[in-house]
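Support request from a user on the community tier.

User writes: "When I paste my structure tokens into the form, the page sometimes reloads and wipes my input. The last time it worked, I copied everything first. Here is what I submitted, just in case something in the input itself triggers the reload:"
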């Protein structure tokens, strides 16, 4: 994700596609896509990418933190917190 950090978004997109084709873990590519969408200022896509990841692993702190940060910026923090609570309950 160095390409995202450096602002080389098309390079990051290409690298993510290659990683997906090579069979990289979905968790890694989902997180990478969320970071890419965030860099592209696409908060709805960030949310759509992170929800399944957070639902399946509500203990994955980097995803949860990014999910909450994105929700705060969109003005939907309460809904995000409810989603996290429900996701945690499902796994209990």
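"...and here is what came back when it finally went through:"
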């Amino acid at each position: 994700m160095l390409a995202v950090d450096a602002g080389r978004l098309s390079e990051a997109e290409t690298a993510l596609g290659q990683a997906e084709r090579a069979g990289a873990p979905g968790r890694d590519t989902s997180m990478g896509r969320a970071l890419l969408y965030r860099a592209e200022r696409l908060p709805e896509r960030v949310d759509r990418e992170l929800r399944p990841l957070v639902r399946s692993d509500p203990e994955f702190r980097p995803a949860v933190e990014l999910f909450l940060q994105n929700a705060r910026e969109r003005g939907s923090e309460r809904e995000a917190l409810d989603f996290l609570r429900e996701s945690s309950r499902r796994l209990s």
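Agent notes: The reload is a front-end session timeout and is unrelated to the input. The CA atoms of residues 41 and 49 lie 14 Å apart. The helical segments are 2-5, 9-21, 26-39, 43-56, 61-74, 77-91. Escalated to web team.
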